[in-house]
Amino acid sequence: MRSDLVNRKDTFSTQAPEIMEITYNWAQPLSYDLNPNMIVYHHTVKTDLTPQRIDELHKERGWSGVGYHFYIRKDGTIYRGRPENAIGSHAQGVNARAFGISLEGNFNNEYLTMQQKDSLIALSKYLMNKYNITDLKRHKDVRNTECPGVNFPFEEIKAELNV
Ligand SMILES: [Zn+2]
């Protein structure tokens, strides 16, 4: 079987995709009462950010640390940000009920890599099944922002996830 077909099949699995765990030192205690019914998609704008660097940048904003729950690099690697039961800092107004997933890149002038798209779909599918989530949003759908950029393939991703 062609390897791309094997990967395609994995994309639709409801099993957890591989997530790289990072140990963060939270500047302030997190609130562990996330009640998720939404996923919000973001882009980082800057490239070449490690998850540790995002954590530093978000601490510089006065936050506890990395505000996203997940960060997907251009090579498709998924990194853990905040724990799945912790409220994030990524979309003011919906943080108490939304997972935040950020993708490396500026999708106003770049495109997701195939690996990023596959990881995003696999991660979304996993979270949607685990938490019974059907509400997918771009950051721009809940706040006045360009995030995650005009090239973010939202319709394609929703179609892949049957929403
Ligand atoms: Zn955003």
Can you put this structure into words, describing what you see?
This protein is α/β, with parallel strands linked by helices and 163 residues long. It has helices at 3-11, 51-60, 114-131, 139-142, 154-160; strands spanning 19-20, 38-43, 70-72, 78-80, 98-103, 135-138. It has one domain: Peptidoglycan recognition protein-like (Lysozyme-like), CATH 3.40.80.10. The protein contains 5 helices and 6 strands, in the order αββαβββαβαα. It has a 6-stranded mixed sheet with strand order 1-4-3-5-2-6. A hairpin with a 5-residue loop joins β3 and β4. 35% of the residues are buried. The model is unreliable at 6-11 (pLDDT under 50). Residues 42, 139, 145, 147 line the site of zinc ion.
List keywords for this structure.
alpha/beta; 5 helices; 6-stranded mixed sheet; Lysozyme-like; N-acetylmuramoyl-L-alanine amidase activity; 163 residues; single chain; Amidase_domain; 15% strand
Order of helices and strands: HEEHEEEHEHH
Strand content: 5-15%
Give the name of the CATH superfamily: Peptidoglycan recognition protein-like
Contiguous low-pLDDT stretches (5 residues minimum) are: 6-11
If helices are DSSP runs of H or I spanning 4 or more residues, what is the number of helices? 5
Organism: Clostridium vincentii
GO molecular function, one term: zinc ion binding
Protein name: N-acetylmuramoyl-L-alanine amidase
Family: Belongs to the N-acetylmuramoyl-L-alanine amidase 2 family.
